[in-house]
Amino acid sequence: MDFSFMRDTFLQLITGVPLTLNLAFTSVAFGAVLAMLLALMRISRIRILDIIARAYVFVFRGTPLLVQIFLIYYGLGQFRPTLQEWGLWSFFREPYWCAILALTLNTAAYASEIFRGGLQAVPHQQVEAARACGMSGFLLFRRIVFPIAVRQALPAYGSEIILMVKATSLASIITMMEVTGLAAKLISQTFRAVEIFVVAGAIYLILNFVITRIIMAIEWWLSPHLRRPPSIEPKLEAAHV
Amino acid sequence: MQQLSYFELIGFGPNGWGWALLTATGMTLAVALCGFLVGSVVGTFVAWAKLSRNMAARTLADGYTTVLRGIPDLLVIYLFYFGGSAALSAIGGLFGAEGFIGVPAFVTGALAIGIVSGAYQAEVFRGAYQVVSRGELEAARSVGMHRWLMFRRIVAPQVLRYAIPGLGNTWQLVLKESALISVTGLVELLRQSHIAAGSTRRPFDFYITAALLYLVITWVSTYLFQRAETHSMRGMRRAS
């Protein structure tokens, strides 16, 4: 192990972290919106919406992400004249947007199942109680269903975010120079796979560790009812007065 | 030159890529299956280490599963692809062989998949082992079974039964991960589609075909795992 080489490698790979996080968070944010929509379609009890959402989840969970990325980045090039006509070519020409699109569509499929599980785990009594108080529609969803569902779904959704951070590495195959892309370039230049692997792996582990901690903090913050009540210290000074 | 129709393109005719795609699908299945089996062996030993009373073994195994589940699979594949060849060349150098010795892409792929999926399978096996009733293990010990006999007769059959759903999930992961092996040049389904797309300039047609073939594989394997689960659970009452 050559530590000065590893330090140089670290300084080079760290420049890829902003892009890795950018890809992960942009696609997780867009994906969450789409996933919520899909989850609502699944529980809507409208047959056609349910079937569409099911098919979407089946297709995107059943095929490798890399195939989806290639399909969007290389595959849509086959329809270049049409896309140019529609003014969409400048979007699909950029590897960044193709990666974002593929990651978003992919995470939406996985997250929609997590959200659906969360929504279905909302106790029926709570909904009934809310209805008895006169809530319905969006108010019921906003005040009762959504907060409980978020709490239920958060642990699983945390692992999905970690999976997405790992999945951004595939963007390196379509020329995005994030951490894995830089690592692959360095390996092919220096052929010192082990050292570079250790450094790149450590960067991902640190990122994922920090993200897990943040999710745990949010979980703690969202479930005050599970925390022990703060012990009320008797005011000893007052007793002497 | 006239444009071939989609079905001529992926069919089995003179201009069709049908056989190439089918062979590549076989390659995908082969590398995924080998990787999965390597992962089962690795996973069994890691699960054993995790459940052992030996502190060092437990720490090592925990570290292994944390690291392998926390870093991208692609990095592991690069490590095996580049690192494996470098190591082999160095070993070859000791025996007087000169120059670069490449590890076959299939071996790289199966090992990389195995090492990664081993981490996931270890967790599956550990969880399944904890469900096996303590009473049965005590009973086996009290009738005088030794460790290996007890493992073969009591532990393994039950762990496998409880592990089937988890193993099904891991298999799906492995299958999708096998697409990443295409970066090492192994001609599996994605690589073959890439080649075909390049030579015919019809990328969409080939990638969508690849996606469909992957869907068929995942669909069939979901069905098979469900069958296996109901089969292994026969005679057991389920609380539902």
UniProtKB/TrEMBL annotation, chain A:
Q: What are the alphabetically sorted keywords of the record?
A: Cell inner membrane, Cell membrane, Membrane, Transmembrane, Transmembrane helix, Transport
Query: Could you tell me which CDD domains the record lists for this protein?
Result: TM_PBP2 (cd06261)
Topology in the lipid bilayer is annotated as: Multi-pass membrane protein
Q: Which InterPro entries match?
A: AA_ABC_transptr_permease_3TM (IPR010065), ArtM/GltK/GlnP/TcyL/YhdX-like (IPR043429), MetI-like (IPR000515), MetI-like_sf (IPR035906)
- What compartments host this protein? Cell inner membrane; Cell membrane
Highest rank taxon of the organism: Bacteria
What parts of the sequence cross the membrane?
A: 20-43, 55-76, 161-184, 196-222
The main place the protein resides is membrane
Asked whether the keyword Protease is assigned, the reply is: no
**Ranges where the ABC transmembrane type-1 domain occurs:** 17-215
Q: Which family does it belong to?
A: Belongs to the binding-protein-dependent transport system permease family. HisMQ subfamily.
Xref: NCBIfam families = HEQRo_perm_3TM
Q: What name goes with this protein?
A: ABC transporter permease
